[in-house]
Amino acid sequence: MVSASPQIAAPPPDEQAGRHISRLVIQHGPVEPRAVPAAAAFQMIGIGETTGWRLIREGRLEAVKIGRSTVVTIEAIDNFLATAPRRVPAANSMDKR
Known about the structure:
By secondary structure, the protein is α+β, with helices and mostly antiparallel strands. It has helices at about 40-45, 50-60, 75-85, and strands at about 10, 15, 20, 25, 35, 65, 70-75. Strand 2 (about 15) and strand 3 form a beta hairpin.
């Protein structure tokens, strides 16, 4: 049994510009991103930009430089969250209202 690979086709010509659009269209539904811009990664983690860039600089959050852009892979985000210290609330934290 041969599994069908996604059909990739060039989009139709851009009528306004009179030329082909350069990106490809994948016919089998949406494509999940493998990496996101650094600012989006910081939002996904729930941290600010200053903290995010510090984590990258310290090597605690892995980032990839592509040209002038810095991206963070989804795998790097998952690894960061998996290894981040866990905070356990104190046993009597509910009593201090």
